[in-house]
């Protein structure tokens, strides 16, 4: 269908009067980009529906006129998944916010896609429940974006990725059809589990409007330890011991390499609770039901790890304030933009046994290519997810393509994945074949073509529609 921009904008203006639509110079600056450091792009318009039906109507209007659409949430994504493309209408879900229902009997929460994650966490807590999904952008990111990227976060080792907490989903298809799949049952095996197509598809197959989330019992106690270790081999020993000794209590296992530790304690100014320096640093968290029982159990396990020679030094939480202060060290990466300036951020997955070998190889390859390169390594090692921040201190702006080529070539050499939890978007799309086979890519393209034959939803992201003449990733 040929592009009919003027008629599309006129139809949108009629359907979305006033502040529900911005065009031209009135488009807010925040909608010109996400957090991927890609150059700003001005969309034709920003439409801001406040209901699922409004989202469907906006999609229908754009589809009828052949105008592409890009869904936008909190705009905290690092891969360019919500970045505008030239000639698109940005579909901002910021007004589609709110918690519609909390069902204590079913332990579910029904939410609108534009609801910030932190709002959902607090609502669950007030109702006596727990939402395990947690990430640094919790105050800004929206649940629709979390679902669209299948976000992981800090507690995947115990609770799994976002898709593990989504029971039901409502979404607008590329032609404007609104599909109500707001299932609240844990067991529902009636045919295809359609929601799985849309979780992690980054708005390329449909736009999520509402979701039913599974809540968990609120932990009765939380214990944590920030440990210094003498080697990466001891990290693997500690992880194995934690899985065996703490079992389902183990809720997080975060590892930080010395380069990360040096930046957060030296340049960011985070306070180290440990004496001296260590070869590796581990933050582990355990959630229990009863402090009188699980607190001593945690301490006994830590003492056993000391006696086994796995831990060289450790700070043990004595309060929830201590737990938060330990997490503050791990979350200090949020300040990297301030202290390091523009940089490239990577989110990869690797076999745990090869992570330290990978870090050594990647660091060396970056230095060989750029003598002033700085790279730091940290992540959710308990679930095989490693984060990298890299830049060339000889340049004001990081050479993104050059750094990405080195990092992703190394990931391919080590048999890893180019994306563990941040999605593909625009930035990782050229490297998708490093992780997915030709047959997998072809199947993705067939699914995209079946649901979005015009290629209008988030065009150019993740995978192309064969009808556009682009079949490569």
TrEMBL record:
Keywords: FAD, Flavoprotein, Oxidoreductase. Pfam families: FAD-oxidase_C, FAD_binding_4. Its cofactor is FAD. Belongs to the FAD-binding oxidoreductase/transferase type 4 family. Residues 39-218 form the FAD-binding PCMH-type domain. Coiled coil: none annotated. It comes from the Bacteria. The lineage of its organism: Bacteria, Pseudomonadati, Pseudomonadota, Alphaproteobacteria, Rhodobacterales. The keyword Flavoprotein applies. InterPro entries: FAD-bd_oxidored_4_C, FAD-bd_PCMH, FAD-bd_PCMH-like_sf, FAD-bd_PCMH_sub1, FAD-bd_PCMH_sub2, FAD-linked_Oxase-like_C, FAD-oxidored/transferase_4, Oxid_FAD_bind_N. Gene3D superfamilies: 3.30.465.10, 3.30.70.2190, 3.30.70.2740, Uridine Diphospho-n-acetylenolpyruvylglucosamine Reductase, domain 2, Vanillyl-alcohol Oxidase, Chain A, domain 4. This is FAD/FMN-containing dehydrogenase. GO terms for biological process: respiratory electron transport chain. GO terms for molecular function: FAD binding; oxidoreductase activity.
């Amino acid at each position: 269908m040929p592009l009919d921009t003027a008629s599309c904008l006129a139809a949108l203006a009629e359907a979305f009067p006033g502040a529900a639509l911005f065009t031209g110079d009135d488009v807010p600056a925040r909608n010109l980009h996400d957090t991927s450091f890609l150059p700003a792009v001005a969309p034709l318009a920003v439409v801001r529906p406040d209901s699922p039906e409004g989202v469907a109507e906006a999609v229908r209007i754009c589809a009828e006129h052949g105008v592409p659409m890009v869904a936008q949430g909190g705009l905290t994504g690092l891969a360019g998944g919500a970045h505008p493309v030239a000639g698109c209408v940005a579909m901002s879900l910021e007004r589609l916010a709110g918690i519609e229902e909390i069902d204590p009997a079913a332990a579910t929460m029904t939410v609108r896609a534009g609801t910030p994650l932190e709002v959902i966490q607090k609502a669950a807590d007030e109702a006596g429940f727990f939402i395990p999904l947690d990430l640094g952008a919790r105050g800004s990111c929206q649940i629709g974006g979390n679902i669209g990227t299948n976000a992981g976060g800090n507690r995947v080792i115990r609770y799994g990725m976002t898709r593990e907490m989504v029971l039901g989903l409502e979404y607008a298809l590329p032609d404007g059809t609104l599909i109500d799949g707001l299932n609240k049952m844990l067991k529902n095996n009636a045919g295809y589990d359609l929601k799985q197509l849309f979780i992690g598809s980054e708005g390329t197959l449909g736009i999520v409007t509402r979701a039913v989330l599974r809540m968990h019992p609120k932990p009765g106690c939380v214990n944590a330890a920030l440990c210094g270790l003498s080697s990466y081999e001891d990290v693997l020993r500690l992880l194995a011991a934690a899985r065996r000794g703490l079992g389902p209590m183990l809720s997080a296992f975060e590892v930080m390499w010395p380069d990360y530790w040096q930046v957060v304690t030296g340049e960011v100014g985070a306070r180290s609770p440990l004496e001296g320096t260590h070869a590796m640093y581990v933050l582990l968290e355990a959630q229990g039901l009863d402090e009188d029982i699980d607190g001593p159990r945690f301490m006994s396990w830590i003492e056993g790890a000391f006696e086994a020679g796995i831990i060289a030094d450790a700070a043990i939480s004595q309060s929830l304030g201590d737990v938060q202060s330990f997490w503050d060290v791990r979350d200090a990466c949020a300040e990297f933009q301030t202290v390091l300036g523009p940089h490239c951020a990577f989110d990869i997955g690797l076999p745990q046994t090869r992570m330290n070998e990978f870090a050594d190889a990647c660091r060396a390859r970056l230095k060989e290519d750029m003598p002033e390169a700085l790279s730091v390594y940290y992540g959710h090692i308990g679930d095989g997810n490693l984060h990298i921040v890299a830049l060339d201190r000889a340049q004001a702006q990081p050479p993104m393509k050059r750094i990405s080529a080195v990092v992703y070539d190394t990931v391919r050499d080590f048999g890893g994945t180019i994306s563990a939890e941040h999605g593909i978007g625009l930035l990782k799309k050229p490297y998708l074949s490093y992780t997915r086979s030709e047959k997998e890519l072809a199947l993705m393209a067939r699914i995209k073509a079946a649901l979005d034959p015009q290629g209008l939803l988030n065009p150019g992201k993740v995978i192309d529609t064969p009808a556009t003449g682009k079949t490569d990733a």
